């Protein structure tokens, strides 16, 4: 990466911050206008974005991109547009006794932070830029965007169309590979949001630490799926199949592995197979089924399968039409269900991010809970079942970024719920009002009364009777 490119990023950051500072306090009408322009950008270029995504993946249907990237982004922006004025109102707080009684006032004022850096992943290369943008713009910030180099055509399209709707002082896009991303993460933003792998997130956090930049990290992980003995197996299989096959499993919240009662393993696997076959009677020639993004990830997934098989796992390929994947030129891959998995297999150590589905069995639900708690806290957790006491036990004794009961993924689609991880699966959250608060500075404002509070309370030297009276009152059990 050239010094010219680094200098340009630094220059744009300085210009955005100067423009931001000069505009304070920026009217809410300006924020609304920016949200409107962001919606227009997506709607006007939705087909071009869908074509770019498909070209980058090798194949992804227009409908899926519209459903999983464009529609959630537009929805998030519209939700912010509807509610951000209410979110922006000052919050009245109570002044400590007895200050409130003598006229003191306290409140929280939500101010924009300034310039927010956005580092986006390749799996949903539009949505992971524009969904957080709803909170960023609603809070009154400027933004600098670094799209993924693995979806190069999408990144180039962002670089082309963003200047048609926003000045560089409002939103700027920087394309390029790892070196660009590394230098981007070192910039002195007022906030940085990164979506991607946990291993990369550690580097992002180290880089941000040099400038004490607050970070939001959405990192994924291995989201467990509990199948209760009480679950409707047919519905469970259909919904797990939908969540695992969408985007060919390349979703940070995809059900990563199943936890199934030992005597129900065959039934659950059969229900997943039926669910896949109903949605995708064929795969290679099916426009609805997405390709693995590139050869590198295709070989990584094959490596997981080879490693698991060598260590004793049983592999069940779900290939409804019996198609010849080995002779195909692309990177499409059928779902493979893995039985008999153990923790020494790579497929149980790494986030899968592809169409592989390990199955672990349990004798008791406590055994399954203990297994989840012995591993990193996941981004998502799923419970299928009708046993309310058992459901409560699972939810109360585990910790995850979010939960969906009797389905998968859907808590992420709720704009009024916070979305984010915990521990190795991330930190901080966004969506809706929670995103607005993430990208805002909650400023405490205290207004003193006209009385000499310091003297009345004994805080003002010389210390004397008032001081002793205050200490005696406040230091009681």
What is the strand and helix layout of this fold?
Layout: H1 3-23, H2 28-44, H3 46-57, H4 62-87, E1 91-93, E2 105-112, E3 115-119, H5 127-138, E4 142-146, H6 152-165, E5 171-173, H7 178-185, E6 191-195, H8 198-209, E7 215-218, E8 223-227, H9 233-245, E9 255-261, H10 265-279, H11 295-310, E10 314-318, E11 335-339, E12 356-362, H12 365-373, E13 380-384, H13 388-397, E14 402-405, E15 426-427, H14 432-438, E16 440-447, H15 453-457, H16 465-474
Parallel strand pairs: 3-4, 3-6, 4-5, 6-7, 8-9, 8-13, 9-12, 11-12, 13-14
Antiparallel strand pairs: 1-2, 2-16, 7-15, 10-11
Helix pairs in contact: 2-4, 2-5, 2-6, 3-4, 3-6, 4-5, 4-14, 5-14, 9-10
Q: What's the short version?
A:
The protein is an alpha/beta fold and 477 residues long.
Spatial strand arrangement across the major sheet = 10-11-12-9-8-13-14
Kindly name the structural category: alpha/beta
Global geometry = globular
The CATH topology of the largest domain is given as Aldehyde Dehydrogenase, Chain A, domain 1
CATH homologous superfamily annotation of the largest domain: Aldehyde Dehydrogenase, Chain A, domain 1
Q: Which whole number gives the mean pLDDT?
A: 96
What proportion of the residues form beta strands (DSSP E)?
15-25%
How many beta strands in the DSSP annotation? 16
List segments where confidence is low: pLDDT < 50 over at least 5 consecutive residues. Answer: none
- Count structural domains: 2
Whole-Å distance between the termini? 63 Å
Whole-number radius of gyration? 26 Å
By CATH reckoning, the class of the largest domain would read Alpha Beta
What is the number of helical segments per DSSP (H or I, 4+ residues)?
Answer: 16
Tell me roughly what share of residues is in helical segments: 40-55%
| Largest beta-sheet characterization | 7 strands, mixed
Examine the secondary-structure arrangement and name the CATH architecture of the largest domain.
3-Layer(aba) Sandwich
